[in-house]
Amino acid sequence: MEDTHVKSLKPLAAVAVASALALTGCSAGQITQTSNQVAAVDGATAFTEDRELSVQDATVILAEDGQAAVKFTVTNQDRSMKDHVLESVTVDGTPVALGNSRPIPYNASLVADSAAGLKNMPKSKDGSIQYVVTSLENQDFAYGGVVPVKFEFDSTSLEVEVAVSAPTLQSGEQEREADR
After folding, report:
1. In terms of pTM, does the model score above 0.85?
2. Which residue range is the domain that position 161 belongs to?
3. Model confidence at 35, in pLDDT bands (50, 70, 90)?
């Protein structure tokens, strides 16, 4: 009987391992395709240097009647469990009227919007979110423009460039003329 010649799979295994290492190395650097991705939220986001406070979804809202407001969410993530106070907000130097703002406890949020925006917003029932109406003198803002907004807190401040936008429409209430 004659022995059957068996080919070794070692070269194939070596090629597979080398390919896997090469492909893994492509995404292991500091600059990757996903390193600059952010959440799909319309407004601007900023954090204090120590990341104790964050401002998210910041937008200047310009209603059809010309009334302006600032929409944003502040979250207190201070690990020392200290309450923080939002003292003022200015848009390009113009003060924003903040409704009944209270200190923001640790692990809680302050959600601000126009009166109409808050009216249509679902509300939390557990008390960890306070809702504040904002209003602002319209400085001839234009949809799609960008303006500087400064948030002054008791211990720090944040500045962020935010977009000027129309308010979010109520779902199902606008004709889109799709049948044309």
Report:
1. no
2. 44-165
3. low
